[in-house]
Every structure is written in structure tokens, then in C-alpha cells.
Design brief:
The chain is mainly alpha-helical. The protein is built from seven helices and two strands. The protein has one domain. The longest helix has about 30 residues.
Length: about 200
């Protein structure tokens, strides 16, 4: 009886026939999770709704969704349907981070939602063995998330200095208002039980 149980267990785990495949799978999944963690860390440092764990899980899950069909021998056409499902599914997850503010123009969480979507793409790239693409897109995303707000503040500051006192007062209030809205979004997310 024990021999039969052991044989069944071995047969169930025989989907990875050799050490090379195990190494490939471990590397791809680990890279996906680490790159997702980097993107999540940036969001978490800014106090956003989705942080390290969420981004790591999105990247890892996306990598798994493409690795499994690859190793099961599915054709490219079938893999494209898997990718379509990932894109649609992650859209729903990202939508959960978007909050509408008090005014008509105020919507928060769009960047985090886009980041979750990008994290899924990074996971897919890692899962498909496109590690260079995954790393480069992560670095580019981190540059965008870090540098664009800095450049925007510089442009706002330059614009406010050249357009008179009333315009200057409005521009100076802009970043403070954004920070207040970010804090409000964070409070709402914490109340809702965010990630």
C-alpha cells in the first residue's frame, strides 16, 4: 500500500522531468516576483493602495499563467487566449485601486492601477523567458514613477514664476492639494481594508 502511495506521489510531481526545467521555472518565477516587488515597493513607499505583496503576487501569478500552458505543450494560439484573460483579469484588480474624489475632476489610483497592469506584463515577460525585457521594462517603469513627478513639479514651479502672483498662488496650491488628496485616498483605502 505505501509503495502505491509513493508511486502515485512521484507520478503527480513528474511534470518537471529534469533539473534544467526546475531551474528554468524557479528562475522565471523568482525573477517575476522580485521585479513585481520592486514596483510594489515604490508604490508602498508613496503610501498607495497596492504595495509590495500585491505587486509580487500579480507578477508571480501572471508568470504562472504563461508557464503552465508552455510546459503543458499548448500552441501559440491557445497561449494568446491565456494572455487575453490575464489582461482582462488584471484590469479588474487595477480598477479596485481607483477611487473617485469629492470633486468631478478628482480621480485617484490611476497610476497604481496602471502599475498593477504593467506588473502583470512584467510577470508575463519573465514567465515567457524574456528576462531582459522584464528587467528593462521594470527599470523604465521605476524611472517613470520616480522622475516624472519631479519633472512635473519643476515645470509647475517654472510656470508659476512666470505668470504673476494669482497664477503663482494657484500653482503653489496644486501640489499641496494633490498631497491632501493622496492622504485622503490612503485613509479611504485603509478603511476599506486595502492591500
Amino acid at each position: 500500500m505505501w509503495e502505491q502511495i509513493w508511486t502515485t506521489i512521484v507520478a503527480e510531481f513528474s511534470d518537471i522531468p529534469d533539473a534544467a526545467q526546475v531551474t528554468q521555472i524557479v528562475l522565471r518565477l523568482t525573477l517575476a516576483a522580485l521585479l513585481g516587488g520592486l514596483l510594489g515597493f515604490e508604490r508602498e513607499q508613496k503610501g498607495k493602495a497596492a504595495g509590495v505583496r500585491t505587486h509580487m503576487l500579480v507578477a508571480l501569478g501572471s508568470a504562472m499563467f504563461v508557464l503552465i500552458p508552455q510546459h503543458a505543450g499548448l500552441q501559440e494560439a491557445e497561449l494568446s487566449r491565456v494572455l487575453q484573460g490575464i489582461i482582462a483579469g488584471i484590469g479588474f484588480l487595477g480598477a479596485g485601486t481607483i477611487l473617485k474624489g469629492n470633486s468631478e475632476e478628482t480621480v485617484k489610483g490611476l497610476t497604481t492601477a496602471a502599475g498593477i497592469w504593467l506588473t502583470a506584463a512584467v510577470g508575463v515577460a519573465a514567465g515567457l523567458g524574456r528576462e531582459s525585457t522584464a528587467v528593462l521594462s521594470t527599470l523604465l517603469a521605476l524611472a517613470i514613477l520616480s522622475l516624472v513627478p519631479f519633472v512635473t513639479r519643476l515645470i509647475d514651479k517654472d510656470t508659476s514664476n512666470g505668470e504673476g502672483a494669482s497664477r503663482s498662488g494657484q500653482a503653489a496650491a496644486g501640489p499641496d492639494r494633490r498631497e491632501q488628496e493622496d492622504e485622503e485616498t490612503e485613509r479611504l483605502t485603509e478603511k476599506a481594508g486595502g492591500s
